[in-house]
From TrEMBL:
Residues 18-211 form the Phospholipase/carboxylesterase/thioesterase domain. Signal peptide: none annotated. InterPro entries: AB_hydrolase_fold, LYPA1-2/EST-like, PLipase/COase/thioEstase. SUPFAM superfamilies: alpha/beta-Hydrolases. The keyword Transferase does not apply. It comes from the Bacteria. Pfam families: Abhydrolase_2. GO terms for molecular function: hydrolase activity. The lineage of its organism: Bacteria, Pseudomonadati, Pseudomonadota, Betaproteobacteria, Burkholderiales. Keywords: Hydrolase. It comes from Corticibacter populi. Belongs to the AB hydrolase superfamily. AB hydrolase 2 family. This is Phospholipase.
Length: 220
């Protein structure tokens, strides 16, 4: 997998503005090899009083194909580029903070979530900077062990809410990742909801519905 360019800042994003008085901000992060339009269906399913931002990963893999970090899948599982993952984590924190300031949104009104690698990044952001968001959604993803030194020791005092959604037949990131992520979150004192589905590495209509319900409940 080859990535073009070294600028890890976030240069492109789609914004779906809220109708009327905005109730919250939702940041949705796409997976590897996708782009900011890949989660448009998930964004469209959210309540109209939410502002939804869909940023593009800073790495270009090809036409319309972007990523937050490079990853290779081998017999021992995924192997990532940790420097790129860290640079994207920092860039996303800056991006979300700037959006909150621009839109007048507080951390208690903000959620970050993503699919696959986007879910990985949402967990990395929320667990290392828990005061930035109210919660995060890990959709068919995992939690990087590389972020462990960056997780605050007092995370359990003011933890974000967590949603873990995963297909039991996931052939890219097996369901064991969801179980391991849930166990880790419980150990860290992070309130977590685990939902399992008869699905491969993807999002079905039930997952979209359940995600929207979690967003509404978390931001009520």
């Amino acid at each position: 997998m080859n990535a073009q360019g070294t600028d890890m800042s976030i240069q492109h994003a789609i914004e779906r503005s809220a109708q009327g008085s905005p109730r919250g901000l939702l940041v949705l992060l796409h997976g590897v090899g996708a782009n900011e339009r890949s989660l448009a269906t998930l964004a469209a399913a959210q309540a109209p009083d939410l502002t939804v931002l869909l940023p593009r990963g800073p790495l270009t893999l090809g036409p319309g194909a972007h990523a937050w970090f490079q990853v290779a899948f081998g017999p021992r599982g995924p192997v990532i580029n940790p420097q790129q993952a860290e640079a994207s984590r920092v860039a996303l924190i800056d991006f979300i903070a700037a959006a909150q300031q621009r839109l007048g949104m507080a951390p208690a009104q903000t959620l970050v979530a993503g699919f696959s690698q986007g879910g990985i990044m949402s967990a990395s952001v929320a667990l290392t900077d828990p005061q930035l968001v109210a919660g995060f959604g890990l959709l068919s993803g995992r939690i990087l062990p590389e972020i462990a030194p960056l997780v605050p020791a007092d995370l359990a005092k003011r933890p974000p809410q967590a949603l873990v959604m995963h297909g039991r037949q996931d052939s890219k990131l097996p369901f064991t990742h969801a179980e391991e992520s849930t166990a880790l979150l419980q150990k860290l004192g992070v309130p977590c909801t685990l939902r399992a589905y008869d699905e491969d590495h993807g999002l079905n209509a039930q997952m979209v519905h359940d995600f929207g319900a979690w967003v509404a409940q978390t931001l009520r």
